[in-house]
Amino acid sequence: MKIFIADDEPEIRKSLKEILEDENFEVETFATGKTLLKQLKNERPSLILLDVWLGKEDGITILEECKKIYPTLPVLMISGHGTIEIAVTATKRGAVDFLEKPLSIEKVLQAIDGIVKSDQKNLTSDIKLEYDEILGNSPAIQKVKFAIAQAASTNARVFIYGENGTGKELVAKTIFKNSKRKDSPFVEMNCAAIPEELIESELFGFTKGAFTGATDSRIGKFEAANGGTLFLDEICDMSLSTQAKVLRILQEQRFEKLGSTETITVDVRIIAATNIPVEEAIRDGKFREDLYYRLNVIPITIPPLRERTSDIPLLVDYYISKTLEENNLPTKKIESEAVSILQNHFWPGNIRELKNVMERLCIMTVGSTIAANDARDALKGFKTANEMVELGDFRKAKEEFERQYIIKTLQTNEGNVTRTSRVLGIERSHLYRKMKSLNISSDQYTDG
């Protein structure tokens, strides 16, 4: 959760930044109202702490400008020259609270806590019924829901990070469904699923004769999404040359089709997603840092299922009900011990894996009760989360579980990569890359 601090006193900026960062807030400071407003046009924080006077700049005027950009953004005014008259004026102009210097750290934290809770409640209640399958009450998933609500209330670009199967596409669609662009197109493209030589024609479109095989003209994803939202999944798989062209569109909102010099102007909101740590991709020279900063206005990190195991009972009940209804099956219940076994699983495939396991249990379990042994059988061949801890290094442990998961699925599908990718819910090209990185050969799992 990000907080902007605008104060002309360096010591105040420094001390507030340190205190709030200790409380796990992300903080950015500004010495002038001008620099604050400039950054505000690029990024919406959760809260602003604004001094009534910043040198010769009037904080009340800056408050009004902030409200013009984001009418619902909470602004907490602070001042060393506070009067009742100034406090009343600030409140009338939209400030949520007013604190006098010297600042009491306890009062500052109490005020921020109250504002954040109130803002979170207001935002999430607006789209409470539109979260679809983003289920759970854990602090980790509540943070995601709050970020979704913030993103849905603006036109700002969004960058989603999460492991495979965590629900990045679902988050993107939820933002779209609750945004002002919900009646306009939602266009999606998986950058990892399209060969590098074809990705630009998919994004920008092409004219007849632009290249061999271009027998007709075709619009691209950007043009198709005009007025709406374009979801670029696995964007870190995009080539650097294509990234440069996407950056230009973000800067200028215009482009040319392949084979054409005619400029097309578009109004498109971008939601990007990746399962690769972006900082690593930037460091390795695989992703442009300037493009990342353009896209990362509202960052959303989706936690893996193993980090929110308290949500598993709710998810289990949901997927049981859904599977029974979709397949017209008789009522089934699940034993609490079986749920505990599911909670102790590492879930390398996250929500997608849980959904598949619950569908299998509902369909294959004989009788009206899913017992502990049924859950054990469904997860046979995989280590538990507790066993995983004993493996030591987290990254190596994660890779080992991914390797086991892919091998087990390959065995079930007799080494057929196409069927395996379908079961895992990932693109075949992505599975091939994953198999190569984990040193897995499908040949050894083929019968005969």
From TrEMBL:
Assigned keywords, A-Z: ATP-binding, DNA-binding, Nucleotide-binding, Phosphoprotein, Transcription, Transcription regulation, Two-component regulatory system
The Sigma-54 factor interaction domain, residue ranges: 134-363
Superkingdom of the organism of origin: Bacteria
Residue list for modification 4-aspartylphosphate: D51
A Pfam family hit: Response_reg
Transmembrane feature ranges: none
A biological process term (GO) from this entry: phosphorelay signal transduction system
Single GO MF annotation: sequence-specific DNA binding
Protein name per Swiss-Prot or TrEMBL: Sigma-54 interaction domain protein
Organism: Leptospira noguchii
